[in-house]
Design goal:
The chain has helices spanning 24-27, 88-100, 113-125, 169-182, 214-232, 258-266, 283-297, 313-319, 329-337, 350-365, and strands at residues 11-15, 35-40, 76-79, 104-107, 130-132, 157-162, 187-190, 236-244, 271-276, 302-306, 309-311, 324-326, 344-346. It is of the alpha/beta class.
Length: 367
Amino acid sequence: MILKENNIRKKKALLCTYNLNNYVLVRYRELLSEYEIIGIDIPGVKFLKNRDWAYLYMGENLGKSFSEKYDEDYEVVILGDGTQDYDFSILEKKVREFSRVGKDICMLYELSEKHAKILLKLCLDNSVNFYTHTGMKVDFPKVEIDDKRIFEMDVPVILVVGITEQTKKLDCVLNVKSHFEKCGYKVSAIGSKKFSDLFGIHAFPEFMYGDMREDKKILYFNAICKNIEYFEKPDIFVIGVPGGVVSYNSSFTNFFGILPYEISQAVEPDHVITIIPYGEYDKKFFEEIAGMVKYKLGCENISYGMTNCFIDLNSSKQENKVQYCNLRFEDLEKKIKNIEEKKVYNVLSDKQLTEMTEEIIEELSYS
């Protein structure tokens, strides 16, 4: 039995969507605030049978293997990965089957209003709960902003950004937060995923993706962070920023890095963790990234992490959308060891992320 900090039992959950968009639920499953994942159900994917759960994202072994049987019963089914990429007929069938046998549904897909109503009714008809996680909701009339100025943060702010998507920013946020707390610090955090609240931190605000004027987004994000700071009284504030911080090329723009820029305008960072894709990098590259972070995000204190993921340009051009490839943990380790220009940390290694956090703590202690 796993207990939360307040000694309330975590609900046993079966994860029924598992891919590179939500693997973090498995990697950091012990940090989930409400659920204990006891199994992963992905029928038809034979190549994963009997392999370690970490095989999907090529991480360090977790000591749990894929199996068609589960040693324990479960109360909740987790469906979705934080995207809108779902087949509703299949999703509706799964919700119907699980709800009929009394399983609560935790939905992570971004559903249309119509689909959400249909699935909610299915659950209500079968007397089970239907939970959704689609980003922080904000009651704007209750949030005070000043149209003319930004309110400065009173505690150090760490931003976690990626050169591209799929750079494991939420992994980094969770690890950094966890280690700061082990060192006795109180940490407030906003995750880069819309389902980040499953880890007991704040999910990234939904309105930042919407049609609100860009200046208003900055002002409201600033106000939200100040409210969190006021009520939670942290020693440190960690924010994971979705998307890429720069345009990758003329075909794949990462929305020109607008979102990270807006966040840095809302809360001035004291340190920026920049995660780069797997690849070869020289001194000029790191000089350019340092300059970009300094002048675009307003910070000179940088840590670098590297992920095992990179953009497959050929597949991306064929599919007309960004496609990623993942490499083995061992390949990432070798690549990082060959980088002499800067200290780069392996974001798949909890040990190395902890070492990075130790350096940040030391740096902030003297600032």
